[in-house]
Amino acid sequence: MLGLSVAALVSGLAQVLHERERIRFGWLTPMLAVFVALDITTFWNQAWIIFRGAPFNIAILVTGLAIAATFYVAASVTFPRVSAGGVERLDLDEYFWANRRLVFACIMTSNLIVVGLFCMLAAADPGFASMASSVRLWVGLAIFVVGTATAAFASRRRVAIGALVMVLAYSLWNLTFAARTLIAGGGWSPAIGGA
């Protein structure tokens, strides 16, 4: 289902690009789309860490379904549905203001479900408890929650834009940090040798 979320996001972008003559792009919706894409990718990473040792269980499957479905709604609403016979002109910045609350609320809900699950695991398992003692984890969560809530619900547009820029910058910083860690660790090497 996470793959469908990415497909919905990319499909929305493609539809908008097909009708680009009728659309004023601006920066807000594309920035939101990058944030949503990075957050979906972050969840894939979290799912690998949290769920890889999970037993096969209906409760875990339903939890994963709830998270993925919420991400799908966010991804589906990030870009407007555009049809050839649709509106004369569409401003993506206006679309952002009309739909930001739903998109950010879905993203925050998905992440808070993961946080709740992680806290339950940390209370029951020493390995998760040691991960939960990371200051970086909790500072990052605070930046994410405050930034996402502010971007969603701030009444002043400049404050909401500032919050969007902050959470996007934080997501990009995490991506850069992960890339540096991968490179510093030697990355990965292709298999060399005879078969």
Could you characterize the architecture of this molecule?
This protein has 195 residues and is mainly α. It has helices spanning 2-18, 28-51, 58-78, 92-124, 126-132, 135-153, 157-184; strands at residues 23-24, 90-91. A two-stranded parallel ribbon has the order 1-2. The longest helix has 33 residues, at 92-124. The model has no long low-confidence stretch (mean pLDDT 88).
Features:
195 residues; mainly alpha; 2 strands; 2% strand
Overview in brief:
The chain has seven helices and two strands, in the order αβααβαααα. With 195 residues, the chain is mainly α.
Number of strands: 2
Number of helices: 7
Oligomer: single chain
Major sheet characteristics:
2 strands, parallel
The CA-CA distance between the termini, in Å, is 36 Å
Round the mean pLDDT to the nearest integer and report it: 88
Topology:
Elements: H1 2-18, E1 23-24, H2 28-51, H3 58-78, E2 90-91, H4 92-124, H5 126-132, H6 135-153, H7 157-184
Helix pairs in contact: 1-2, 1-3, 2-3, 2-4, 2-7, 3-4, 4-5, 4-6, 6-7
